[in-house]
């Protein structure tokens, strides 16, 4: 049988709940989705628990599961994925962290965990940090900018450990945390000390930066802290091609996603104009995905805007991002052809009124152009998905894609 190409689309943080200003509709329910709904004639839809019912995923653990790697076995922290995606070259023993440019007050209490999110000066601030803090206690320090408020921090030196806790309190109104060793090794104690000393130096440098004086003069929140989380020493992961047979490529601007996909051996493309934000160039991403479909079995198209809008509580921007994802899928099908299978889902729910990830199941749509038993529903959203035939977890995705693209091998004789 002819093997079908696969377009896997993730709207980050897509899942939601009823939203009061949308007349109790969800953003997906409210959004105008002519392309997605045109696929329903030959689609199964339903609900996916990225990790398991009620478990609140991060984008990191969720994407490992969606690509078929059990995070319980393969996940050891977000930092190294973020750093790889932001351009760091990691050598064995380097400890990487995800960081947030954030705004803190004089008592180091977090006022804004993202310093306003759009930080035009981010690259310059990172350059200043790299110039002024090249090392701490003999440990080399490097900062890498991802997108928006996202910064990766890499520590290089002997006897370091990723068994250290976050300085990010994960909440506004809380003081930044002291990093603590999470095991009783000397290397963990040493690393925690370096992180705490580094945090003091970062605050000193950023508080004195002229760039933050400028931000304050413009009424913008100063990016006067880097909150650190997800310490990890990178470990090699199995490659998608080896365990699934799928030659895969990804289109993304988001450091975490680029790092995960690179770790799986996928080609990663960030087309000019792709920003990882609500202002991304959707059509550029669509063209890149269509082009990659020529040489790949699977193309993964990641859209971060739905999550960014959700975390910022911006309902209309989440609806608009979903409508742009609809157009993006349409552009890929118009450009490459519609004889491909399309799986569209989210990596977790980020209810826009909650402004945080939740453990709710996420709607999933699987369009198969050949003869399948379609659910024949008329709209794709969290409510209609409850009437669909799919009820899966993230770890089922690759097997579903292999089966419906005519690539699955028999389990058994
Ligand atoms: O946007 C991201 O990087 C994560 O999904 C959320 O991280 P943040 O809450 O620190 O922005
Ligand atoms: Mg996410």
Automatic annotation (TrEMBL):
GO molecular function: metal ion binding; phosphoglycerate mutase activity
Reactions listed under catalytic activity: (2R)-2-phosphoglycerate = (2R)-3-phosphoglycerate
CDD domains assigned: iPGM_like
Keyword Phosphoprotein on entry: no
Record's keyword terms, sorted: Coiled coil, Glycolysis, Isomerase
UniProt enzyme class: isomerase
Gene3D superfamilies from the UniProt entry: Alkaline Phosphatase, subunit A
SUPFAM superfamilies: Alkaline phosphatase-like (SSF53649)
GO terms under biological process: glycolytic process
Domain Metalloenzyme: 5-401
Pathway(s) of this molecule: Carbohydrate degradation; glycolysis; pyruvate from D-glyceraldehyde 3-phosphate: step 3/5
The protein's Enzyme Commission number: 5.4.2.12
Chain segments annotated as coiled-coil in the UniProt record: 112-139
Family to which the UniProt record says this protein belongs: Belongs to the BPG-independent phosphoglycerate mutase family. A-PGAM subfamily.
Function (record text): Catalyzes the interconversion of 2-phosphoglycerate and 3-phosphoglycerate.
Protein name per the record: 2,3-bisphosphoglycerate-independent phosphoglycerate mutase
